Amino acid sequence: MTNTNGQDQVLRVAFPSDKPATDYEPTKIHFDSQYIFLENVYSPLVEFDKIGALRGGVAEHADWVGNELRLTIRPGLKTENGTPITAADVIFSLKRLLVLSSNTHGNFKDLVCPGVQLKTVEDDCPDLKQDGNVVIIKAEKREPFLLPMLAAIDFAIIPRSSTDPNTLKIINYKETSGPYYVTKDDGHGHIELKINPYSYHVTKDIPQTVELVPELTAESSLKALLNDQVDLITTIDAARADKVLPFAEKHPEFRLHATKAIRETFLLFTARGLKDFSVNQRRFISDKVRGIFSDIYKSTPGFNPIDTFFPSFSDVGLNSHEQAEIDELKRLGGTRPERPIEIGLLHQGHEKICTEMIRKYLPNAHCSPITNIPGFESDSSAAKMPDAYVASTDTSFQEDINLISYSLNAGLFGLTKPERADWLAKYMSIDDKHKRIQMLRKLQFDALSSATIAPLLSSPYTALVRKPWHFELPAIYANDPFWLIKRD
Prior knowledge:
Oligomer: single chain
Distance between the termini: 17 Å
Strand order of the largest sheet: 8-9-10-1-11-19-12
């Protein structure tokens, strides 16, 4: 049972991962479970609040002075054992990211020390300086994306004392900058987190202990909730809105959280599928998969069919002419492929498309679960990829550089890895927002018209928590900061 005695109150979380803490690395975030774990044990320099406004994080203040971003580090921030987290740790964390050079949200390297190849964190990066408790990031100009980019957990501040000095690998997950730190880890997903008393997020009504319980299927997590084995099902659980919404109606002992319809399910063709199938064949396959999802979810509240990646009413939605062209291409249909298509399923919850619905719409298709996002794999592994895969991601109603760069790096628009880097560098160099929006809209239009990606459904992210806990989570992000789950 949940302990309600003040400092000992425990939140047991059904967590969709069976990985040990050592599997979580801020510079290598491919899955939502990685992001959620990391955002609870580390803090970035700045953060977005519930309505999408930037506020201070590890940096208490962030100010542009000419072309310098000056970040005043919050005083009193420490790891759980009392070791101060200072401007030197911030410089170390940013240099570490440049050395490892593998983050997926944003493109820090294009803005800071471009052309400088850091081999160690001791190498000089002329655009990163420390002045007392102030970190100075110098850019060529006042960059509109730099500060929002730093809110991504890729840019988590990692105490230098927690890493191996040679490999830079995190080896001590007790020494963290965030509101929680790891106290127990069985290596198979059962992880205990304790509150860091020095975190600026700490209040008396948040969980003092968080227990991550690996529940990898929708059935097991909902059953664990009913059997009082867990208290929280997160927004990234295998139990999606189609299961969670009716469950919440039947069980008033739990509170429901639902975001806006920012979860997009899509079919994406891999490098192999783009090579082996023509545009008309991909269009035929996309149309059939849309039919499958339409049949499955047509009567499900909260699930709506979509035909664009970015919402039509967003900053980057297609204009009327582009939308008319996409509609006409859909009307023309496609050509049935000669060979069977291999479809991968990245997450649980879509198994039904592999049963009677596949036989109805695509009898020559084979599908199976996959564990990695093909777009992040090396080019040499292309032959092992499925032709296409079904997955979900969160989208934005605005120009969100972190989500845009993640989608680009994951291969969602069909560009090669060199093309992605070139596109993002050019995009981020443009000051005129109207021109950036045009560039982004064209990227979306090209991917849709070439049948590289087929958007299928939009839906909310949902979460459930046992009373007397309640949610203060944002409606426009899929995040699960455990410190925004509080007791009445």
